Each structure stands twice: as C-alpha cells, then as structure tokens.
Amino acid sequence: MLRFLSWMLVVIVIFAGLAWWKWRLPPTTNEVPNPTLLSLIRNTPTPTPPQSVKLLFGGDLMFDRHIRQFINTNSVEFPLEPLAETFGQYDAVIANLEGPVTSYPSRSVNTVPGSTNNFIFTFDPSIVPLLKQHRFIVNLGNNHILNFGANGVAQTKQFLIDGQVEFFGNTNTETQSSERVLLKNFGKLTLAFVNYNQFVDRGLPTALADVVYARPLADLIIVMPHWGNEYQSTANVTVQNWAHQLIDAGSDLIIGGHPHVIQQSEEYSGKMIYYSLGNFVFDQYFEPAVQRGLLVSVEIKPDKTMIFTEIPIQLERTGQTTLAN
Fold it and tell me: Is the dihedral of CA 271, 272, 276, 278 positive or negative?
C-alpha cells in the first residue's frame, strides 16, 4: 500500500508540473484571441495631436469712395481677389473695418479730395458675404465708425450678425466690456480680441478695463488699437507708452492701425507690438508709403507660443490689393 501511495504521489506531481508549464507558455497560434478584446484594440482611435491656430492680421479696410466704384464696375470680390488663395490658409483674418456698413447712400463718391464728405464713409451691405467667405473678424473701434452716428453703428452690427461675421471694438455706444470684447474658441484655445480706440472718450482706460475683464476668460489676449498720427512712419513715445501699458495690463499681442503707413514693431516684456500695419484696402495713391501695407501671419502653437511671418502687400491703382513683389 505504501508503494502504491508513493507512485500516486509521483503521478500527481508530474501532472501538476505539466499544468504549471502549460500555464506559463504563450497561447499557440491555433488558439483564438478574445473577440471582445480584439474589437476594443481595433476601434481605439489614434490620439490626434493638438493643432496650431493660424491667424492673419491686416490693416484698414475701406470700401467706399473709389473702392465702391471699382466694386460696382467689377464685383464685390474684386478688391481682395488676388489674396483669396492666401486667406484660405488661415483659420481667421482679422482687420479694422474703417467705417460703418449701412443702407445709406454714399456721401464720399465723386467728392473733391479734402472736402468734408470725402472723409465720410459707409459701406454697402454686399461686402458682408465677402467678409464671411474669407473668415474675417473685424474691429469696429476707429475714427470713422460713427460717420453715420449711432444708427450707423447699430446697422453695422446687425448686418454683420445677420451675415455671421464676428466683430469687436469700442464704438462709444457700448456700456460694458462684454459688448466690446470678442471671446472666440479655436480648438482648445480661447482668444480674446480687444480694441483700443483713441478717438472716443476714455479710450485708454476702457481698453485697459477690457483687458482686465478678458484675462481670466482667455488663453491669450490680442489688442488691436486705432491710434497715433497719420502718415508718420514711426509711432511716437506717447503711443509706445500706451502699448506698454496694455502689455503690462495682461495683453499678449498688439497689432495697431490708423496711420495709413507701416510703422515699427518691437518686443516688450516678451510680447510683440506692431504699431501700424498700414492700409489693407484703401484708395490712397498719393505716395508710395500709403500703397504699401503689411499682413502679419501668426501661428499659435498649442503651448501658446507664437510664430510671426510678415507678408508685404501692395495697393494698386486698379483698386485691388496684391502680394508685393
């Protein structure tokens, strides 16, 4: 009996060893994997890396006077037609709309240069679909937005809203920051667009308050001031001081306009300032400087760093804006 029990113990140990060895081996090619596990592996999406945001900034857009006549003769697309392909490379194009969009007839067409009506602008509502087509975001805070009074501003905003064109800016008709500041999401980044309008009461304090308002709501704050002296190629010390105040308040990028010519740029506290990009669409041809403008391409990385590329443009006497040679 003892010998029988010993043999049984040996057999049990052998079978236990074989079972343990089989458990350690990987499954053979004849074994079928768990179909549920296979399905999960196959259907798990590959993570998409965060995308950069690409913005294009330009100067002053003016669609009255001779530009209106060029549009009437050709088409509403005509002034910006040479840049259509360039616009298509960006998530948005941001520029200053140098006047209201209204149903009023033009007062500046066929006027004598230098006369009062020569500087009173209104743009035909037909430009709104053009702005929408090229993904424009427009600043309304400038010295011509009130050319047709508060009603002109109200019409402008309604035409833009109806046409799904986003806007921002201090027109001196808003009462709180939320009416002046545009918060826009680009993927996972929220950008705030703020305007400083030198030509309204309390323009600078209002802009500084708008920056403070936007700071906790946005990843980056971009300010587009309308400021300075016309036709001067250098922003003066006063304007530079305003820019530094806006950066100190929390702005991340400043791109200005109004002088109708390109002015200097600088880096201050690690932030870029472009004092004036000059004209974008305008019928000024009296000297080469007003016929040259600048577009600034800004690529914003997921970590909020910015890459800048300057693109010179030329305003032709035909009414079109082209890439400069």
Answer: negative
Residue 72 lies in a domain: yes
What is the CATH classification number for the domain harbouring 241?
Answer: 3.60.21.10
Q: Which domain holds residue 282?
A: 53-323
**Predicted TM-score of the model (pTM):** 0.85
| CA angle centred on 141, ends 280 and 218, rounded to 5° | 95
Dihedral Cα 199, 201, 207, 208, nearest 10 deg:
130
- Report how far apart the first and last C-alpha atoms of the chain are (Å, whole number): 107
Q: Estimate to the nearest angstrom the gap between the alpha carbon of 130 and the chain centroid.
A: 17
Examine residue 105 and state whether it is found in any structural domain, yes or no.
yes
Quote the tokens at residue 161.
């809203």
Of residues 14 and 87, more confidently modeled? 87
Q: Is residue 48 very low, low, confident or very high in pLDDT (cuts 50, 70, 90)?
A: low
For 83-171, strand residue ranges (E) read 92-97, 136-139, 166-168
Q: What is the spatial distance between Cα 180 and Cα 176, in angstroms, rounded to a whole number?
A: 7
